[in-house]
Amino acid sequence: MLYELEDWANEGKWRDECGVFGIFMNNPADDTDAARTTFYGLYALQHRGQESAGIAVANGHNIQLHKGMGLVSDVVKARHIDALKGNIAVGHVRYSTTGGSALVNAQPLVFHYLNGMVALAHNGNLTNTVELRKRLATYGSVFQTTTDTEVIANLLARYSQDKLEDALAKCMIDVKGAFALVIMTEDSLVGVRDPMGIRPLCLGTLNGDYVLASESAALDTVGADFIRDINAGEIVVIDKDGLRSTQLGNAHREAHCIFEYIYFARPDSVLDGINVNRARRELGKQLAREVNIDADIVIAVPDSGTSSALGFSEQSGLAFEEGLMKNRYVGRTFIQPTQQMRELGVRLKLNAVPDVVAGKRVIMIDDSIVRGTTSKKIVQMLRAAGAAEVHMVVASPPTRFPCYYGIDTSRREELIANTMDIEQIREFIGADSLHYISMEGMYKALKNDKDIYCAACFSGDYPAGTESIEV
Predict the structure, then answer these.
(1) How far, in Å, CA of 459 to CA of 461, rounded?
(2) Is the confidence at residue 10, as pLDDT, over 50?
């Protein structure tokens, strides 16, 4: 059996969810500009999904699609872009959360319904998928994939007698959970965000044309200017007449995913008014206020721990050093993982720098501990490189609960903080000490009311429920 190198080299880390991108161009200089811009937008969102990628393009009459398994650069070549002609485009990068890893589940999904063709790209996860699939099947719906995204497509088809905004409004009443959608008809582009705003989605403009993206960093990459975040429970429709917005009744609270700020989003993104890099530095500063360790240097587990480590260094006065180096060229190679290669798995991604850590009392900052296996290997690596002491400090509280809103996490019984206390985890990973940021400190660092975040992975409080999912 073949395994992907990244699966076991990243053993013990959470997997990103998905990224979506869309653009409506009124008068493109070239009929492949929309596809080309979407390619670069997806490239900027590659960290959100490395399993599959796809681009669909509309020209006012029909929709063309190209998708495949792998990274954006592996799936979409110049010849594919040359064939994707049109002034509207949507794109998607994916990790599977609901539905397996297979080409049929890759997005965008393109389908025909009463009013023409539609392409649908989805970031998030529905919690009532099983119930909805059963209900739709009794009405005669058929399914070609195992994704919850196809449930949304079938609901949209059922309400096709209504205009698009009304059909989507009815869909939003039916579905539960988290979703950021970018939808394309033959002549329009649509963005939809769930009523709690759990998954991110923002709006930008590029030379007078509108762009939708999961993160503002993708707007920066294609040269677009950020306008605003799509509001929780908002539908925006972009066509030849411009942009119009429909605001549906919001839920009783907003619940932005707190793990976007801790780990998932790019540090150069701004999500719902918060700069991700700044948020992570503040988390590091707060950690330094909460944790008092007699040490020599601060290092980070790159890259997601770097900003927090810099904040910790700034607040504590300890020097920040690059004690772990990341190999950024591992990619997603398919290999036969022999036992020797499994043992070398983490070293293929990270390597300790003996000249930096030898003889030093090291504080190592990481964003989270999921199963603990990766943390254990890194601690062993630092000790082998001569570190006198290794103190692990985590920029999030203990992860005790799985996510049901679009992040591929371990099952609850696989989460080390669900089965061990902090001292037992410390002993398992082999660190001299282990410290997590407090829940109160995390909210203080983000400088916002805790009620605007979803922190279910730490607290077990699922703001959008779990419906038919067994917790």
Answers:
(1) 5
(2) no
User: How far from chain centre, in Å, is Cα 411?
Assistant: 18
* Pair 419, 461: CB distance under 8 Å: no
Residue 202 annotated as catalytic: no
Q: Is the pTM of this model over 0.70?
A: yes
- Please report, for residues 15, 79, 212, 300, 331, the alpha-carbon distance to residue 7 in angstroms, rounded to integers and kept in the order given: 9, 30, 30, 21, 11
Question: CATH no. for residue 380?
Answer: 3.40.50.2020
- Residue 53 corresponds to which tokens in the numbers above? 């990628």
| pLDDT given for residue 467 in this prediction | 60
178/166 Cα distance (integer angstroms): 19
Residues 21 and 104 in one domain: yes
227: left (phi over 0), alpha (psi -120 to 50) or beta: alpha
Q: At 132, is the pLDDT very low, low, confident or very high (cuts 50, 70, 90)?
A: confident
Q: Is residue 91 part of a domain?
A: yes
Number of domains comprising the chain: 2
**190, 194, 197, 198: CA torsion to nearest 10:** -120
Pair (14, 154) in one structural domain: yes
> Can you give the three-state secondary structure of 379-443, one letter per residue?
HHHHHHCCECEEEEEECCCCCCCCCCCCCECCCHHHCHHHHCCHHHHHHHHCCCEEEECCHHHHH
CA quadruple 217, 220, 226, 230: dihedral, nearest 10: -40
Same domain, 445 and 322: yes
Q: Which position among 18, 403, 454, 457 bears the catalytic label?
A: 18
Whether residue 471 is contained in a domain is answered as no
> What is the structure's pLDDT at 16?
45
Cα–Cα distance measured from residue 258 to residue 434, given in angstroms and rounded to the nearest whole number? 22
The boundaries of the domain holding residue 82 are 3-252
Output phi, psi for 221, to 5 deg. Answer: -60, -40
| 403-436 pLDDT, tens digit each | 888 776 557 778 999 999 999 999 999 999 999 9
Low-confidence winner among 286-290, 312-316, 401-405 (lowest mean pLDDT): 401-405
Query: What value does the mean pLDDT of the chain take?
Result: 89
pLDDT of residue 161: 85
Number of residues in the chain: 471
